[in-house]
Amino acid sequence: MIARVPVVAVLLLGSMAFTAGCASKKHVARETAPIINKVNELDDLTSKTTREIRDTDQRAQQGIQGVQAKASEVDQKATTAGQQAEQAQQLASKAVTGVDQLTQQVANLDNYRPVAETSVHFGFDKADLSKKAKEVLDQLASQIPNTKGYIVAVEGGTDSTGDKDYNYQLSQRRADTVIQYMAQNHNIPAHKIYLIGLGEDKPAAKNTSAQGRAENRRVDVRLMTNVVGQPAQTSAQQ
Hints:
This protein has helices at 7-109, 131-141, 164-186, 210-216; strands at 113-121, 150-157, 193-199, 218-225, 236-237. The chain is an alpha/beta fold.
């Protein structure tokens, strides 16, 4: 005959087992809570460290870019300085060459005598040739084929009105205009032309009157030769 276990006993045993299980879970939770907290703290620390590393890397990249930009700027300045030094050297060499050429020209002019000469005049602060001026230059140029060993001396002048340095530049522009016309229209080689910009330093008349100032706004053109016995031609004025 099977012994019967009272229902009350079974319920009591089940209750005790459940209670023991709950007590065990609470114990485990209490034991593991510090570990979980440590893990969370480590996660937070890791995230913070990662952010700091990223920020540091960004600052480092910005610093590197800044250094590279400064280095590029320094290189550019050094290149510019080198170019300016080279330009200065070229200008200095050109100036020395110009002095040598001028010295040679002056020496050469001493060996020449005038064959024909003319003057062309300009308006106030102007450097363009009038129709009459071109006709006078054409007349002088017509004598060149019959002149051996020739050169053409061109002297630009101005009146005394205005700045002296500006007047010097203006006198050169006027002389350049004459030279360009003679070279283009009469095929005169460049080495046959001697340019002298006088500014207001060699007036043809006094600058105290309008007529005198008009006379000084001029370019004198001389056809010269170093051949002895070359006959002199007539002079023209415009």
